[in-house]
Structure formats: C-alpha cells, structure tokens
Records
---
Amino acid sequence: MRQIEEWTAQLAELAIFGANVQPGQLVAVTSYIGKEELTRALTRAAYERGAKYVDVLYFDQWLKRERIQHAADDTLDYVPPWMVERLMHLSEEHAARITLSGPHAPRALLGVDPARAGRDLLPYLPQSGEVVNRRTTNWCIVPAPTRSWAEVVYPELERGDAFRQLWEAVAHVCRLDTGDAPAAWTERIDVLKANAARMNDRRFDALRLFGPGTDVTIGLLPSSTWHAGDFTTVDGVWHYPNLPTEELFTTPDPTRVEGHVSATMPLELYGIVISGIRVEFAEGRAVKIDADEGADALRSAAAKDEGASRLGEIALVDRDGRIGPLDTVFYDTLIDENAATHIALGNGYESPVTESADKERVNQSQIHIDFMIGSRALDVDGITHNGDAAPVLRDGAWQI
Amino acid sequence: MRQIEEWTAQLAELAIFGANVQPGQLVAVTSYIGKEELTRALTRAAYERGAKYVDVLYFDQWLKRERIQHAADDTLDYVPPWMVERLMHLSEEHAARITLSGPHAPRALLGVDPARAGRDLLPYLPQSGEVVNRRTTNWCIVPAPTRSWAEVVYPELERGDAFRQLWEAVAHVCRLDTGDAPAAWTERIDVLKANAARMNDRRFDALRLFGPGTDVTIGLLPSSTWHAGDFTTVDGVWHYPNLPTEELFTTPDPTRVEGHVSATMPLELYGIVISGIRVEFAEGRAVKIDADEGADALRSAAAKDEGASRLGEIALVDRDGRIGPLDTVFYDTLIDENAATHIALGNGYESPVTESADKERVNQSQIHIDFMIGSRALDVDGITHNGDAAPVLRDGAWQI
C-alpha cells in the first residue's frame, strides 16, 4: 500500500501542476465519496502552493440514486441555485478548478430508469461550457482510482488486486512511472502540438472517418484549428485541462455532419453504462440513436436542448499514446476518450475557432458527451475545399 | 450489524420527523465524511416525504486540518461566499435544514494550533443565528454515530464494541428503543413544556447557580420566557431543533452576569477538545477564560466579536432526562448539553423574548458555544425582583 500512497501524492501534485494553481488563488475541487485520500493530498498540495482556500465539494452517487428512485418527476431538473452562483463566482474570481474523474460508486445507479437518470446531470452544470469558453479559470481533470471503479475494469481479479492493477494503469497513463510526470507531459504535449500544427497547415474543409460500422463526414468551420494539451486563461495562465491527454481536437461545423457512427467503447454517462452506441446524422443532427444498453440515457441527454443532438467536438487520437495499447475499457471518459478518436454531442469549445463569425456558429448546449468511435481499424481522411480526400490516419499512424 | 442498520433507518426517520419536512420542500443537510449511511437513509426518508431536492454538503475534517496546518495566516477567516448565499436562499425559500452532530474525525485536528483552529469555524456560518431568529426554516440536529467518535467515548473498548456501545447509547437517548421515538418525544417534550410554564409563572429577575467551582448570577430580561422542545416557523411549521432535548432554556440579559463558573464536562469545539474550563464574568462579560487544555481555542472564539464574550443562553436540565444518568461524556454538544445545566457564549435566540424592546437587547454574535456547568451538585435559585432567593433545582429535582 505504500506504493499507492506514493502514487496518490504524485497524482495530487500532477493535478496542481495541470491546473497550474497560482499563489493566492481560490481552488475549487469536485470530488466524490470514495476519493477522500487523493482529495486530501491535493488539498495539501494546493495550500503548499499558496492557495487562498480549497473549496471541496464531495458528491455521493448513492444520494443521486435516492433522488432518481424517489423524487417526484417534476423535480428532477432542479439545480440548486447556489451551485450556479458558486461556479459564476469561480469565474469572476478567476479561480482554479480541479475535478476528479472515474466512475463514482458504479453500483449506485444499477437498475435505475436511464431516462430519469439522464435528467439529473449534477454535479455537471449547464453553465460549465460557458465558463470554459470565458477562459477565466485554470482547470484540470485527473482520474482518482477507487476500489469500486477497479472492480468494474477488472471483474476477473480479486478486489485488492484489481485496485492495485487500476492504480498501476493510472500511474502508467498519467506518466507517474516516468519519475517526473510534469516533464513527461510537457514533452508529450509538445509532440501533440506539432501534430496539430501539421493538421492546421492543411486547412481541411471536412474529415471523413470510416471503418467497421462507421462512415461519417464532419464539416469544419472556416477557422476551425486543431488544438492539443494546453489552454491559456485570459490572464495568460496556461493549464492542462485533461491529464492524461493524447488527443488533437477541434470544433466542427454543427450543421455539416452526415453519415453514421458506431461506438468502439462503452460510455459511462451520469452513472449509467451505455454500450453499442449507433448514431445516424443528417444535416448535422443526430436523427437516430440506438444502443445495446442504456440508449434511453443517451437519448434523454441528446434531447436536453436544441444543440444537444449536434456535435461540439471532433478529436483524433493516434496510436502513440499510452492508453490505446492497454486495450482496456476504463469506463471513464477522461481516460477512454484519449484511447481512441472520438466525437462529442453538445457544447463546443470556442477557443479552437479563431474568427468571430465562426465563434457564433459553435454549437451551444447544456451537455457535452464524448463517445469513442476510433480504433486502429478506423481510417481518417481530410477532405479539401476542392472535395479531394487525403489520408490523415491509417492504422492509427499519421499520414500528414 | 442488522441492529445498527435498523437504528440508522429509525434515526433517519426521527430526523425527518424532528425537522417536520413538508412535501415539496427543499431539504438541506449538513453531513460529514464518515456519516454517509445515515445521510443516505435520511435522504431517502426526505424524498419519501415529498422533498423537492435534498441538498447534502459533506464536510471533511481532514481538509480542515490541511487548511489549519498549511494555509496562510491572513486567509483563515475566509468564508466561501456561496455558502452564505446558500444559507440565505434556504431562508428565503423556507427550506428544511438537518444537521448531523457528533465529533467528526476526532483525530483530524490533533496537535493543530487551537488559536488557528478557532478562526476556521466552517461549516458554521456567522449568519446561522440570524437565520434561526428569522424563523424561516424548520430544522433539526441529530447525532450520527461513527467508529472514530465511538473510540473517543469508549477508549477502553475494542473498536467494533465501542461503535455498538455508542449506537446503543444514541438509540437510548434518542428514545429509538421505545419502539415509537416520535411519540416518546412528543410525550417528553410535553413534560419539559410544563416545567417551562411553571418557571414562567414565577417571573424571576435572575438565576443564581452555585456548587463546586461555580457561583454565578445571571440576569434575565423583563420578558425572558422559558422555552422547551419545539420551535415554530413564521409559516406555523412546528419542529424539534434538537433531538435529543432535555432542557428548558431562555435568553438572558447579556449585561448582567456576575461571578465564576467551572465546566463540569469537556467541550469539543471545532475539532479541539477543551477541558477544565473556568470563566469569570463581570458586568456580563467573560473577563477571564482558563482551561486545563485548549483554552486558546475558546479564547480565540470568544474574541470573535463584541458579543462573543457575553451570554446568549442559559438552560436548565433536570435529573429526569435520559442522558445525565449515563454519566458519559459524549464530546458532542448536542448530547452533552442535554446532560446538564449549561450556558452559551455568543448569539442569543430572540424567540424566548416576547417584548420588542427586549429583543433589541438580545446578545448578537457570530458564535454560539454551549458549555456545561451543571451536575446534581449544582444548585439553582431563582432571584425575585425583590431580591429574594427561591430554590429552583436541588439535587437535579424541581423545587417549583
């Protein structure tokens, strides 16, 4: 267990590095029951960095279960106003924000009605995307291993072994095992940014992604640029919003998506596992959503608002990352989305779009749901403004 | 453990009964890491009662430790604004409020500087007393047994036995063992209210409390009335703010307290244990505060503001309650203050004072700290407006 204590301290330091917590800053942490050890370690690390106050909210998925099972139907969309006021205050004060990911008590929502579950998105707030787009907060999401999460990923292992195995995997994909995770990430993100720069040089009009069960063409906005690794706040504070990160991403044209996609990995959405997702797009909209299980949770989320059935993100992941080769489903979007090329329904990021006329066309929604459609069997072509196709990814390797 | 599960469900129901949760009401819960089981049970019970939303905040004393140990000195009084906005919203919306008491991770604050600890009163808010006095929320505090609390109360027992023993004691003092705790409390509170009514008939000008280490005279306001058991909101919703409750209390004249008191029980204050408290009062003010341990925490709290060194409450506890006979220190003010006669430094309740001129004289402060000075060896006299003394309590029995 001493190794797990060391990893906990290192992961805490990595979160503070990723969020780039500044002396005197307010630091907000979104945590969950079961993640107390990492939460305490990163609280200590934040105060040692000079944080003014570390404002931790612990959420409990078993309370969400009680709500979904027992609350009146007309109350399920209620969001406590203080949660929104808190988020707005974090934005106004230019705070740091850290979120711990990983399935939270995966058994808590077993057997609940997915349609009701899809209406309670807390602690996710509809205003989260807007605050990200304001670039007022420096933030970072890192995974927080728990025993109950480990059981889901490694059901064949004994409980203690599964927990140890999950920590080993997280330590590997977060590059704690390099001995200097911040340096390792700086190096990897430099490579990702070089890949993004080569994509930007090509100025494709659209991408076509095709392979088993998927053939979709996704239009880009005239000024959509590819982005990787870091964000910078309006105050010039760089930060790594996701650790691990292995993707290049951009913001697509929400009106130009045609074709069909099949997810290559299951998705954990607000506590519900959705597997075998198949979506058909026409004129940008997801017009048909199916899944082997949990389809109603995704349909319910995609019906949240006008933009919820349109794309806000397209991200390319090559075969050089550390996650894909593990060939493991982590049921954690943060890790899984960095295993494979993916798209997201819902709110788009404005920062990859450079022209203000294009910013107005970025998809807006209360939701942002990534799901993985990539694998080494998924080919990606860039489509030029002349309609020519140029290979971008083949067998997970860059062709540009 | 099945018994503990049953007690948990019964205590959850008692909290909902005590707060008198109304259908459609917002229900705020203040809980702590380690108290998840009772929190989940009362969340379920609240939704079954028709709660609109159960808004639980889990606090973690180990995070408080990190703050007290590592945060800069000039940040320790910071209170996140959203916490105040949330409390004000609860008041405006006329919500129900439930708080779980009992030492929270008693080891978390071992060895920290009591003066620094006394500056971080969270989750207690300076505005709490004001909201109580507005009578807009129906609220209830109940104890929540934990293993770490049990170790403090029964250090001589093995850990599992101590937990079971603490639950047995809590089940007894909360009258769960009567088979119908709400009915048992209704009956006991009727007796307490009859005692209060007899005290009110006497219209004493002051009380003198005297016994080993204590001889103090506490003036009352002209319209100070004795109160027991229930409060009623401005909407007419009765509720039992404290369960268990064994006290009659009133609001004293903050300018007329003379003499000295010695605490008969140690006090757990914001995680610090303060034992052997001795306080001298002159013209209403605590002019000297000593203690065998933790004196600085109490001094620091009593220096918070002008009213923090004056009395906001005097409460009489007879020998017929269920707590005193256990002869056990629970290190939980909710239970311990109902074992013995006590006084409180800081904010006073307005509701026991009937005349508006007197309401203006009620002590105001950000703090409200009860400490126990009673025992069967403490005698209580009522002092009439003529200066005559009449016996009120002898050997813990009513003389009126």
Note: Chain B has two domains: 2-180, 182-398.
---
Amino acid sequence: MIILKSVITTKTTAIAHSNTALIKYWGKRDEELIIPMNNSISFTTEALTTTTTVEFSEELTKDNFILNGTEQTGKPLKRVVDHLAIIREISQTNVKAKVYSENNFPTAAGLASSASGFAALTSAATNAAGLKLDKKELSMISRRGSGSSCRSFYGGYVEWIANNEQNESYAIQLADENWFDIRDIVVVLKTPERKMSTRDAMKLSIKTSPFFKSRLDTLDTNLAKIRLAIKERDFNSLGSVAEMDCLSMHSVAITSNPPQIFWTPDTVKVMHFVENLREEKIDAYYTIDTGANLHILTIPKFEHEIVKQLEEKILPEKIISSKPGPGVKVVNEHLF
Amino acid sequence: MIILKSVITTKTTAIAHSNTALIKYWGKRDEELIIPMNNSISFTTEALTTTTTVEFSEELTKDNFILNGTEQTGKPLKRVVDHLAIIREISQTNVKAKVYSENNFPTAAGLASSASGFAALTSAATNAAGLKLDKKELSMISRRGSGSSCRSFYGGYVEWIANNEQNESYAIQLADENWFDIRDIVVVLKTPERKMSTRDAMKLSIKTSPFFKSRLDTLDTNLAKIRLAIKERDFNSLGSVAEMDCLSMHSVAITSNPPQIFWTPDTVKVMHFVENLREEKIDAYYTIDTGANLHILTIPKFEHEIVKQLEEKILPEKIISSKPGPGVKVVNEHLF
C-alpha cells in the first residue's frame, strides 16, 4: 500500500452500489480482520445505492455520522468510528470526521446496506484523507468494516478471494456490468426485527451446524460453475447454482443451535412463486440473504411479467428491479 | 418365522395408531426390502387411528380395497395388493382378500396414514391368513409395505433398528405409553398436493444433497440423546433434539436437486409461533414430516394454552391433540 500524502485534503463524496451474492459469504476464518472461510461471487446491484460525503476537520472533537438525515449513535456510529480509525491509522492522522450518508432504499428493510455503505465510506474517507489507493487496496480496507462491502468496488460480476499465500483477502472483477445483462428483482417484505446479528449467526453456524463443513466442500465446484456461467452468459446455470447455494447457506443457518430461520411465511410464498414461474417456462431463480427478502434473478425479457405477477399474487412492501451496476465512484456533488 | 397354519381362518380386524418420529427416517439402503439408512425413533400417536378388516375368500377373483367407504384403484390399490402378495407368499396361499380400512383423520391431509394403515393391514391380514406372528416378525413384514409402519406395532416409544448382522430390520419398544406422558398437538394445515412422493424425494436426497452423509454422521449422537431423554423423562432434551433432527432432515431435502421444500408459508408461521412459545417459557418444540403439517410437542400442563393460542393466532384447518398410544390390537368388531 502506497501512502502518497498524510495531509488532509478535501471533502469527498463517493457513490457505491450494493451487491447480490450468487455464492454466499457465510463464516469467518478471522473475526478481527474479517477473512472469510470461502470465496464468494456477487454482482453489483445498480438500483441499490449509498452516497456518502466525508470531511475531516481539525475543528471536530469527535466523529459524527448522519444517516438519511438522522444523527446516529450506539452501534451504527461505533462501526463507522472504528472504520475511520483504520483509515486514520493508514493515513497517520488523528483528525475527526463528519460523515453524511444516504441510501436510496429503506435501510431497515434488511437489504445489504452495509455493503454499499462501507464501500462508499471507505472510498470517500480514504480520498478525503489524502490517500490514493487502488481498488484492491480499497477492497481490503473496506472488508474490515463490512466483509461483503469489498465486492462493491467493482462493477458487474465480482469474486471475493478469501485468502491467498500473502494472507490477503480482496475482491477481483470477473466481468464488467456490460458483459451479461441479467435482472435482480428485489422483493422487499415486511421483515421482523432480527434476534441475532449476521456476524453472530455466522459464528454460531461454524460452531454448531453439522453441515457447515459439508457446505464448504461443495464450494469449489459451485464457484467454478458460476464463473463459467458468467463467462458463457448461461443464465440458467448461473441462476440454478445461485439458488442451490442460497439454500445450502440457509440450511447451515437452519441447522445451527439454536436454529436461525431467517425466512418468514412470505419468504416461503415467494420461493414457491418462483418455482411456479419455472413451471410456466419463465427463467427465474431466487436467492436470499440473511433475512426475509428475496432477490428474483431473471433475464430482461421476463422482468415485466414477473413484476406484474408479483404485484398480483404477492403484493410485497416494495419491488426494486435492478441490472448489474458499476463500481464505486467519487463524485463532485456533496451531501453537505 | 414360524408358520403355524396355512389354512385361511377368519375375518380379522386390527386397530393401529400412527407414529410421530423424533428422529426421522430419511433414505433407504435397500429400495426393494425397505431397509433404511439410519435408525429412527418415534412414539405411537394415540389420536391417529386406522381400523382395518381383512377377509380372505375363495369366492374373490381379485383383491378389493375400500378406504373410508371408497373403492380404491390405481396406486393405493396396488400398494395393498403388493403387500397382500408378501403375506400370501408367507402363508402359502393364493386366495384373494377384501380389505376395508377407515382412518379417523383426513387421509389426504398429509398425516402419516401409511404408518397406521400398513400396521393395521399387516396385523389383520396375517391373522386372517392364519399366521401367528410376534411383533418383531410383524414389524418386518409391515416395513416392506411402508417403512415407518413398522414402528406402530408397539405402544409408547419405539426404535426402528435399521439393520443388524442378520440383515434384519425391525422395531423394538424403548418404553411403553405409560412411561412418559407428553403431548403431540398435530397442526393440520391446508396442504398443497405434493409434486413428488416421499419415496422419490428420499432417493433424490441420497443422490443429490451434499448434506445427506453429514446428517447420518450426526445420528448416533442424536439417537443416544433421545433414548436417554425418554429414559430420564427429560422433555426439553427430547423436544430440542427432535426439532433439530427435523430441521436437519428438511435441510437435506431442501438442498436436494431440484430442491424439495415441503414447508408452506403457514408451516413457517407455526415454526416461529413455537419459537415464541419458548420465549414465553412454554416448553414446546415442533417436528415436521414430509409435508406442511407440524407436530407441536409439549407436556400436559401446556397443552390447553398452546391449543388456545393456535386457535387465536394460526387458525389451522384442524388441531388434533394426542398422547402416546398403544401398539396394534386385534379386535372383534369388524367393518363389514
């Protein structure tokens, strides 16, 4: 990592998009550094965006974090302060920062706001701190704030390399957002408050699920299948392997002790809805993160029909349809 | 096996109860003989009853099977005819039979009607054919009609021994129905028609689920825990291990290819309902067979409260509350 300047420069704003995992990240080898147990693959989700402005200022006595117009305290503030501390250590400063952040989607809806949030924060804060870093370096810093955020630095299809000989863990791009046009129809459901954080649920799975190791054993094959499906633009292979990996990850959670069942009745309703779409010869598969919401993966020509049927048969809280989007960008319009 | 007489004697009627598995039977080592991959443990479910009358008669040109007043054809008839053929072979006769059978619960509701059905049929038909067999022998014959039916010959808590040196697979009693009084609140939901038979779903799991073998590896421990829980009348241990094994079995089904998701939205609603009961300090656990219905396991003092809350919050199609019941009995009142 090259530190060009440790002098605080400017206010910086970055825009990052969330990402949707096709092969899930579930379980850490290193809790502190956030090194995952397995490689994961995602695509960047254009429609789910976080914009973050960071300004370091000698006048501040502590860090501030305003999310969607509301000053944050407690855990959300602590995660941002801890992440700024990592960036301050790299840039050899102790100046405090003001962080404004806005999601274009409901934060509490159980969508992966920490992925876009930490990607935007890392990009804006390192830039504002005068660091000039490449995406590999950015992904490694961002990973320590939120693991899956490291995949949001690149557009299109991205693989998070768990670990290599240098003990580094970072993201690489498999194909850009123009390579293979798919659709991610995000089905936002009424989500009950989760009883356990994703972090704790992962730890529990490693310790207690009899299937944790068996899932890891399947991953080399499934990662290879997804890489090939992306390369060959084979949607049915991509979708079916993603759905199977989602069910494998959730089965690991379900067989943890105590069981972690993230699905609500509506989740299962949508799962069967997607199975029925396939019986109607509509190419569609689902994937589910740590929560009740689903992502229905499809190809552009079925997007309209699926949204229509969702509105008729499911009536979810919100439907957000997305294509693969670009990586993190620094922009000139600030939030304050 | 001692064949006392091959002469056809009398019309015989038997009553058998279904059973509820605490450790599930999932997967066969031998498809033809129905030798399971693993031992399973159940208790006999008093409230779910099949009564069957069998009469062999030289006047019949083919077997007849009347279930709940309706003459059966196709698959249901074929399973009964095939089972009668096994019994005819043992008793060295080729006389045809008339079989009348009545369930005291809705047959198509996804309850385990084949367990009580084949236990009653085996008992009545062998008796009517003049065979005098003990329960071990009966359970081995019945197993070939429906695997889990072999557990219904005994009252109370029963283990189905997968296999032993003699290549025999039969049921034994762990404790009778008076040993340990628990309640099984059967929650009957609106169940969609299944796309695949249990038999085919098991075969698919063996072939395609990455977790099939891992589940088998957990079973020695879980079987031992359930045996001990029965011996020590430790309800919370019995319930929590049963619930975990149910989730393990369903995870194996869910990770089969194509996925076998037996749960409906209402299934998941009841799963979370039971989790909430525990938060209210009500001892309750669920187990789910190959279908959408659940069995809520509890102790007598919570039975009324749980049924009340089910009626208020879930409003299922039907609630059937049962205690552990007796084994198969031959009775004198016939159905025809």
Note: Chain B touches chain A at residues 210-211, 213-215, 217-218, 243-244, 247-248, 250-252, 254-255, 257, 259, 261, 263-269, 271-272, 275 (CB under 8 Å).
